Structure prediction request, 193 residues.
Amino acid sequence: MITAAVSGSFHRHMDAIGAAVQELMALSVRVLSPADPRIVAQQGEFLFVASDRVRSVRLVQDRHLESIRAASFLWLVCPDGYVGQSASMELGYAAAFGVPVFATQVPTDLTLRQYVKTVASLTAALTIVRARPRVTSEGILIDPHASLQRVHDSLDHIEKMLTTSRCSFLPIHRVYRELATVQMKLALPAYTH
Prediction:
């Protein structure tokens, strides 16, 4: 399944961001962040959207960055070329992890332009992404409840394999495969403070 994250200035382009999220969903793309871009709260200049389950600027931003890292691509919304400071950081994060960045409008900033592939539409971006799919894994920050449930299910499966083996040969390769799944699901983005 193709996944996407969407970045842009919430203050200047929220309607266009909402429209992009809706269009992505209509194209059967799973939007990792923001899944529901309706503004529901504000802390200083930071806007929280309906899909932000916590009201911590750092946790919300970390979750969005993790979503970018795990996404098939980042869709940058900058209809007038403006890319705010947060979206600039997010674009840089995508570039650092090799996540392709697409937009229909080129950013006005010359440096940012170097990291954005301008396309005619979301459909054009999807054509490119489908031709060169990325191998990604979702970390726990994207959907903590679902991730923890999958980890719990894997641990239950490991327990059953270890306690109900009826033969003298334990399928240890399956245990290691399940442990790798647990490790992948608990993966957090690597960054330094």
About this structure: The chain has two domains: 3-131, 144-185. The beta strands are 3-8, 30-33, 39-43, 46-49, 73-77, 101-103, 117-118.
